[in-house]
């Protein structure tokens, strides 16, 4: 398999140097570029074609939130992992709603950051159900009628799958609980995300929480 191509975005050169040393040491990860400002991201993405972007939130100029929103709106956009210093932060939640596939803390052990990059590249979210609940509690919003209406557009089976994703279940767990094959579950998840115009499972889980569907 070709290595995972990674783009680092952080305004601190020491942080970038540390991440490059740490992540570049993994046999299956190649750091293909670095940026100190979100404004540099679009051109670097075009030039380096990364699979994953590790994006700091707080940067002067164009911050990581704006850069993530712009990037994820593009066709064939790379996955984004938000790099932050806070567990439960409204800005992290905004980045996830914009399409970031997960987040890691800056003090996360190196092996866990490497694992997060690998999982995101493989299409797996790096947010546990507990972290998702904590983020939603931090947002402290009442169920949103618009979110309920969007879930209402799903078939009964699609809704069952969406709720299971909202609970943080894997495809294998969903397959077992709904007596389906894993490929069938994957098809349902893909169809649900396409129908709801979502980028990834994290956004789907947030929509389920927004709708109050797990209460």
Automatic annotation (TrEMBL):
GO terms of molecular function: DNA binding
Highest taxon listed in the record's lineage: Bacteria
Transcription listed as a keyword: yes
Keywords: DNA-binding, Phosphoprotein, Transcription, Transcription regulation
InterPro entries named among the record's database cross-references: CheY-like_superfamily (IPR011006), NreC/VraR/RcsB-like_REC (IPR058245), Sig_transdc_resp-reg_C-effctor (IPR016032), Sig_transdc_resp-reg_receiver (IPR001789), Tscrpt_reg_LuxR_C (IPR000792), WalR-like (IPR039420)
GO biological process: phosphorelay signal transduction system; regulation of DNA-templated transcription
4-aspartylphosphate modified-residue sites: 56
Keyword Phosphoprotein: yes
HTH luxR-type domain: residues covered: 147-212
Protein name: Response regulator protein VraR
Lineage: Bacteria, Bacillati, Actinomycetota, Actinomycetes, Kitasatosporales
């Amino acid at each position: 398999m070709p290595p995972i191509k990674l783009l680092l975005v952080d305004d601190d050169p020491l942080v970038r140097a540390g991440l490059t040393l740490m992540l570049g040491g993994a046999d299956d990860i190649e750091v293909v570029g670095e940026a100190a400002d979100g404004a540099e991201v679009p051109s670097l993405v075009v030039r380096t074609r990364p699979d994953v972007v590790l994006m700091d939130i707080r940067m002067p100029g164009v911050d990581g939130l704006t850069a993530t929103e712009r990037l994820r709106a593009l066709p064939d956009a790379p996955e984004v992992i938000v790099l932050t210093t806070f567990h439960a932060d409204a800005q992290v939640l905004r980045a996830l709603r914009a399409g970031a596939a997960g987040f890691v803390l800056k003090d996360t052990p190196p092996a866990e950051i490497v694992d997060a990059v690998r999982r995101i590249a493989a299409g797996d979210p790096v947010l546990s159900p507990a972290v998702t609940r904590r983020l939603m509690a931090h947002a402290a919003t009442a169920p949103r009628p618009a979110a309920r209406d969007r879930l209402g557009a799903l078939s009964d089976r699609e809704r069952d799958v969406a709720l299971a994703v909202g609970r943080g279940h894997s495809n294998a767990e969903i397959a077992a609980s709904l007596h389906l094959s894993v490929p069938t579950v994957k098809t349902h998840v893909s169809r649900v995300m396409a129908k709801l115009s979502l980028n990834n499972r994290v956004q789907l889980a947030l929509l389920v929480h927004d709708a109050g569907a797990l209460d």
